[in-house]
Write a structure and sequence with these properties.
Layout: E1 5-13, H1 20-29, E2 41-50, E3 53-62, H2 72-75, E4 81-87, H3 91-95, H4 97-103, E5 111-117, H5 130-139, E6 144-147, H6 156-172
Parallel strand pairs: 1-3, 1-4, 4-5, 5-6
Antiparallel strand pairs: 2-3
Length: 175
């Protein structure tokens, strides 16, 4: 059987320090590796299979600092998926998601996922409730919502697997 390859560009965005780079490193290496601040953008590649096809996720991990945001409109062209990330223990990171959402180029109808990072903090340190996330998700027609932990690995692989499957089916309909 002929095996096809699909390359999907994914943007990973959110404020600095929410755990974007650590999440990507956890996916790629399977280990928790603390990260220093991202300058501009980091590019990683993740390979998986769906049905008999090879899926390549090209992960564009964007710096969360305001001074780098001018890159994002151009670099987000052609994205098939976008992870809107926030720290479940920092309300300000959640409130700024509206700005991140508005910056992303939506020309290609990307699949958006709302990602609550640092789920391992525990309920007592969480300041963003699931209800808060669901409201944001509904207001912005976000396709998925998931909470993750790079420390424990909770939901990291599931997040990228579900995103890849959604994009794959969306793109396959165009063929």
């Amino acid at each position: 059987m002929l095996r096809r390859k699909f390359l999907f560009k994914i943007c990973v965005v959110g404020d600095g320090g929410v755990g974007k780079s650590t999440m990507v490193k956890r996916l790629i290496t399977g280990k928790y590796i603390e990260q220093k601040i991202t300058i501009g953008a980091d590019l990683s590649t993740y390979y998986t299979n769906i049905d008999d096809d090879e899926i390549i996720l090209q992960l564009w991990d964007f710096a969360g600092e305001r001074r780098f945001q001018f890159f994002l409109p151009n670099y987000s062209r052609g994205v098939k998926g976008c992870l809107l990330c926030y720290d479940v223990g920092r309300r300000a990171s959640f409130e700024r998601l509206y700005r991140w959402y508005d910056i992303i180029d939506k020309t290609n109808n990307p699949i958006f996922v709302l990602v609550g990072c640092k789920n391992d903090l525990g309920e007592e340190k969480k300041v963003i409730t699931q209800k808060d996330a669901e409201i944001f998700q509904n207001e912005n027609s976000i396709n998925m919502f998931i909470e993750t932990s790079s420390k424990t690995g909770h939901n990291i692989k599931d997040l990228f697997t579900h995103l890849a499957i959604k994009i794959y089916h969306q793109e396959k309909e165009k063929i």
